[in-house]
Amino acid sequence: MKRRGRFVVLEGLDGAGTTTQSARLAAALRRAGRRVVLTREPSDGPVGAMLRQALNGRLRRPGGRMLSDAALALLFAADRLDHLASTVEPSLASGAVVVSDRYVLSSFAYQGRVLDPTWVEALNANARPPDLTLFLEVRPRVAATRRRLRGGPKERFEDARTQAAVARAYDAVVARHARKHHVRRLNGELGVEAVAKQVQAAVAGLLPGRTARTKRRVR
Length: 219
Prior knowledge:
This protein is an alpha/beta fold. It has a single domain, classed as P-loop containing nucleotide triphosphate hydrolases (Rossmann fold, 3-Layer(aba) Sandwich), CATH 3.40.50.300. It is built from nine helices and five strands.
């Protein structure tokens, strides 16, 4: 019987490095002989494309108003279920390692901080928990500096006050869901290479057998 794959998620503030580290992790796993699917949320599907427009301000209600937090929570949940059905579950069934830049805990932290968290959790009740969630801990001011350095237009949740609130929400969310979502906290304020080593070491513990065999073949 084919071994089911593993689902790894990276979480953190905007500027924590989840996108960079997801890509580095996927590359490292491929070098080790793993079959990897690198993905993200919002996804590249139709609902995800709508969400990206909402986050960068290009999708608005008549009169120029932004979508409500409740509408965003519903869209994120819909995108997530579509993402699971179209990408994550088929890839896991084929034995691949799925690496996702953000997942359920982002909704709990970003939308759950201003909405009833029980309702947000109910919207996502059918989303399977990851095999491992890596939370990159970065202080809001450090994340803000990184966002300024990378440039580009500011998205909806990237102002200082919101990011500070999201950081507090993440602390509570990680504590509440650590067991179910298999959360490990990592120091995201180190250099890119140092964080990558932490991430890869954490995932190696989840995937010990294949990595060891691959190393023996290389020798």
